[in-house]
Amino acid sequence: MPAVQETIDQVRQIDVDQYKYGFETTIEVEKAPKGLSEDIIRFISAKKSEPEWMLEWRLDAYRRWLTMEEPTWARVNYPKIDFNDIYYYAAPKGTTGPKSLDEVDPELLKVYEKLGIPLKEQEMLAGVQKSKIAVDAVFDSVSVVTTFKEELKKAGVIFMSISEAIREYPDLVKKYLGSVVPPTDNYYATLNCAVFTDGSFVYVPKGVRCPMELSTYFRINEKNTGQFERTLIIAEEGAYVSYLEGCTAPQRDENQLHAAVVELVALDEAEIKYSTVQNWYPGDKHGKGGIYNFVTKRGDCRGKNSKISWTQVETGSAITWKYPSCILRGDGSRGEFYSIAVSNGHQQIDSGTKMIHLGKNTSSRIVSKGIAAGVSENTYRGQVSAHRKAENARNFTQCDSLLIGDKCGAHTVPYIEAKNSTAQFEHEATTSKISEDQLFYCLQRGIPTEAAIALIVNGFVKEVIQELPMEFAVEAQKLIGISLEGSVG
Amino acid sequence: MLEIKNLHARIAEDGTEIIRGLNLTVKAGEVAAIMGPNGSGKSTLSYILSGREDYEVTEGEILYNGENILELEASERAAKGIFLAFQYPVEIPGVATMQFLKVAMNEQRKYRGEDELTTPEFMRRVKEAAAELKIAPEMLRRPLNVGFSGGEKKRAEILQMALLEPKLCVLDETDSGLDIDALKIVADGVNALRSPDRAVIVITHYQRLLDYIVPDTVHVLYKGQVIKSGDKTLAHELEANGYADIIEAAA
Ligand SMILES: Nc1ncnc2c1ncn2[C@@H]1O[C@H](COP(=O)(O)OP(=O)(O)OP(=O)(O)O)[C@@H](O)[C@H]1O
Ligand SMILES: [Mg+2]
């Protein structure tokens, strides 16, 4: 099978030369000492000038975490993490929090420019439409700048780093933080509660449609440093917001931990659209290095007829453990999960969603597209459940896997549970393979192997790409192509 | 245009020899018909010509416009003008026919150092060619070959050929599965491409197609060799008498 063999060889090469965000920046940093203890937590809290209640919240979580066990049910393998061998706080010197654009270290601005993220408050040229995108830039443990803050404020929208929000809007934070993902939720989420350093805070008041796309770009730069981001988005009655997160990291031989918690709250008639383009460093061709991406993301459709939609394009990380979920609490609420998970080389992905139907007439839709190449393992794990009181719950799940080569694996693990007899859950799953016949057919038409794979894969994921904000759809498509390429980068 | 000299080829995986000392010359402007019993190696020859890597050439050479193409990738051969209309066109799920055409045309242009087609220019060409072949615009929006009927698949092959404007066209049993009207449409499509700088190889079992696409030469392939060549009357002879006499005479 020579044609396919060649493809396999090519995709196997995905590694260091491929990952174009792998550069390292030399910036003077201030770090907390290595390791985890109550003192370190006090250090982080003090660095962020947090109120006493926040510190107590962290310490409580830490004490609980000490009693917890690392979960092992996911289909991923990695050596035991030494949590005392990690730096929990690293910040570019002199940045205790975000500043105005002119005060930000030009070196930092350059980093984001190099990543293709302009932080100047200008209109981003994207496709046919010119649109403004507000950006929160998080570098290691701190947010370095948030753009368009003033303009958003005029519309009543609060968009700032979570550290700032804790100081400036303590009541809002207190009310919602941990209300979707409680500090006791799971091992990594609890760890995050104890040591989270930065992330974004979004509050859209009643009846307001957020006037621009919001986005956060996370960058892990320092060695041996974990990133523990915490994001909280609240959409009041009838509000709408679309938010996107992106992430990159330098190439490093050692694994780095990223354990985030994201909480979304949608009140009556509100809608939150949350998109992720996850492109952490995936490790080299031998499986050395790469980010461990252990993330808890959950949205609470708290109000009636509210809607939360997760769209994710996962191409990076050595290991991904991630299940953006929706609690459909409000009557008539709707949850959506659209996912593209690409694994290549030695990557391992165990990702999916949970749709928990609690209210009446709630509906959910899951479209998952997994693409596995190289010697990677790609698992979709999903749960759809209807509570006793969830009259007329509806779910549609479509789960498709595409294999490239014969050394990778794709797995689908759906859990379905209906405690109310009126629930209607549909599940469809397919597994296909890019065949040698298909590749030869494309080659014969003058389409080289890599372009042929990109063409077929992009056809496979089209449904999900359409869900991304237009400005990012093209980028995401390219990214998928690149992650599966062998030579071009 | 095409010179195949003493070609020996085997299946890469198990070493079975399929092409055993094949000689064939096709000149520019010529239409050559290749006929021969099932399993004689006709499709295999077309695959080897277009660079499928499942086969290993152990001896001989293939010269295309004087250049030995055996070292070229399949996509390079395509960009240089070799086109194969497949006996069994392959389904490409999720990729709209229109998009496939655009990528194929532009990849070939890129290889040849030409500019990409503008979208209006591309649309104009596709619409025109599709109309000639009586292909409905809806079909172009569907994923390539997915759920196409046998006849629609064959027509889609000819559409691609018309748009890619190859120099050497190999049609592998394009007539099979076509109704009388479609056969005529496809034959017209092929005849429209006939030109002094283009050669066509038609692989077929039936005289019927050759009534429409009249060949200049006819070659009989048997057990991986050309055992007899002639003009168009040879095809009539085969239609009337079958292969037995020719095979016997060659033995
Ligand atoms: N990849 C392969 N693996 C195994 N056998 C093969 C392969 N390719 C060709 N063959 C065998 O080689 C012989 C020639 O096949 P080929 O398809 O070229 O015949 P053909 O002349 O096109 O026949 P038909 O008229 O039926 O289309 C057959 O016996 C076929 O089974
Ligand atoms: Mg054949």
Task: Show the helix and strand layout.
The complex is a heterodimer of chains A (489) and B (251).
Chain A: H1 2-12, E1 29-31, H2 38-47, H3 52-66, E2 90-92, H4 106-114, E3 124-126, E4 129-131, E5 133-139, E6 142-146, H5 149-154, E7 158-161, H6 162-168, H7 170-176, H8 187-195, E8 200-204, E9 213-219, E10 230-235, E11 240-248, E12 255-258, E13 261-266, E14 271-278, E15 290-301, E16 307-314, E17 319-322, E18 325-328, E19 334-343, E20 348-357, E21 363-372, E22 377-386, E23 394-403, E24 409-418, E25 424-433, H9 436-444, H10 449-465, H11 470-484
Parallel strand pairs in A: 5-9, 8-10, 9-11, 10-13, 11-14, 12-15, 13-15, 14-16, 15-17, 15-18, 16-19, 17-20, 18-20, 19-21, 20-22, 21-23, 22-24, 23-25
Antiparallel strand pairs in A: 1-2, 3-4, 5-6, 7-8
Helix pairs in contact in A: 2-3, 3-8, 6-7, 10-11
Chain B: E1 2-11, E2 17-26, E3 31-35, H1 42-50, E4 55-64, E5 67-68, H2 74-79, E6 82-85, H3 97-111, H4 119-132, H5 137-141, H6 150-164, E7 168-172, H7 180-193, E8 199-203, H8 207-212, E9 217-222, E10 225-230, H9 232-241, H10 244-250
Parallel strand pairs in B: 3-8, 3-9, 6-7, 7-8
Antiparallel strand pairs in B: 1-2, 1-4, 4-5, 9-10
The structure holds adenosine-5'-triphosphate (ATP) and magnesium ion (MG).
InterPro entries (chain A): Fe-S_cluster_assembly_SufBD, SUF_FeS_clus_asmbl_SufB, SUF_FeS_clus_asmbl_SufBD_core, SUF_FeS_clus_asmbl_SufBD_sf, SufBD_N
Domain SUF system FeS cluster assembly SufBD N-terminal (chain A): 152-210
Protein name (chain A): Fe-S cluster assembly protein SufB
